[in-house]
Design brief:
By secondary structure, this protein is α/β, with parallel strands linked by helices. The chain has 12 helices and 12 strands. The strands form 2 sheets. An 8-stranded mixed sheet has the order 6-7-8-3-9-10-12-11, sandwiched between helices.
Amino acid sequence: MNHAMNQPLIEIKGLKRHFTIDKGKTLHAVDGVNLSLHQNEVVGLVGESGCGKSTLGRTIVGLYEKTSGEVFYKGEKLPSRYGAKDFRRLSREIQMIFQDPYSSLNPRMTVREIIAEGPLLHGLWTNHNMVANVGNWLRRVGLDPEHMSRYPHEFSGGQRQRIGIARALALQPKVVICDEPISALDVSVQAQVVNLLEELKDSMGLTVLFIAHDLSMVRYVSDRMAVMYLGSLVELGPSNDVYFRPLHPYTQSLVASNPEPDPIHEQSREHVVLKGEVPSPVNLKPGCRFAGRCPKAVAACQTVTPQMRPVGASQVACHLY
């Protein structure tokens, strides 16, 4: 598929989302991100907790106002701040699946009401065909249609996440932002949910931004992988390249911290433990954000902020290249 020919479905340019926390203190949650999503592509977004991945996802779908920068959908610039009309219009196109299926499902609504709410609001379904449609969606996500009159608390975490997926996809969106959709689930259930998303992506032609911190899982589901550190992207490239041939020292340390499935090999291999904590995202100074923890830092890393540059099929923001 030639990406040069077709315009990206979603294009993010210089996106920033800052939060003012005190007088004179600004938290740089997302700080100048450039990223594009092409039709039918899965882009994985990885990084440690607190690096701004979820904030980026929520800013793309309009749950947070943009501090600066732009998000384009099919070439149309989306508003910096969404009003009710924007949510109504754009929720048909761009949906989000949240990390915690406990807090994202209304406990007072039955599963039928939760899944049918969006399609009824948009006139995609009628009261006449609603029950049949909800039943179809429950079947598609591997749940029993006979349970549609139950409430979210009557389901397990994995089942609730399937309900969240059915709710997001019942609107038949073009783009789905998955915000750590599996991190709250048991490992055996994680694989089922990932396979379900993969299958639905193929059958519906979805474009997906898959946010997670498990690199091996992201490599499995995504075409390209973006690595985020403290509000900025530090590496972007084809998933296998980023995983097997990481360029940025931060990506290298993330890959190295991934456990090996073979216990004997896992015990014998060298473990690189990153020193120091993720610095505070408040009032960031120039220079590479990873410099304080980087084993390969040079003098320029402390003062000059590295920009993304192409290296092979990937891009990396690092002074070593």
